[in-house]
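Late entry, written up from scratch paper. The run itself happened at the end of the previous shift, but nothing got recorded in the book at the time, so transcribing now.
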Amino acid sequence: MHELLLFGTVPASRHTQLLNILSGISSMQPSPIHSEKHLVFKPNRPPGSVGSLKVGGAQDVNVQKSQMQAHTLGDLFYMQMVAEVDGREKGEGEERWVLQFRDLPEVARQRTVTSRLIADVRITSGDPMEFMKALDYSHVSTYTISGHRFTHHSASLLLYRVTLPADALKTDSTSGGLPQARLLDPSGTYILQASVRVQDGSKVETMTKGVNELLSLKETLKGVVELEIGDRLALDTRVR
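Output as recorded:
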């Protein structure tokens, strides 16, 4: 599957205004994201080595096997395990997980939007941490996103901020010495991500349709948010 993307930034002072504008464009109320957890994993094998999947530790985890086999999810890329539903909405500790692979985006000159190969593999049961250990991946970092989602025709709009977990070595004097979570961008700026997913990226017609939809959305939001191609290096998931 291919994902087509455009990105924009919005200062915190215009957040409410943009929510209202996006609600009007999409004809829907914003769908809140309270705290979507992202666990980042790195392969234990060095780049260029060949390894095999150890199934013993993952035998209690069910996944969509056809997707798992179709995408090797090789040892050259970071991967993420993402909590699909906020636990506070479904009950404490009850989360659904998706394993996400994101390839290096194509060179920008080929298209007027960011384009990359992606794979989402749903974990239907079992321990996701044990599953990643079985793939010979180690957990290296965690972050959460919060914000709102919209849908406009085939495009998904995500307005969000990234929060980093509390650092035990840093404390806030106003919290009685307890470590505090913090925004990745201290200014509080929001990111607007517009995306369209194309099942078969080899079909020129469907890719063109997706690109045109994003460009139409870009034109609609002109003067409100400037949607642009993402920084290819910032979106690079390869392990060096």
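The first strand starts at residue 2 and ends at 10.
(Scratch paper discarded after transcription.)
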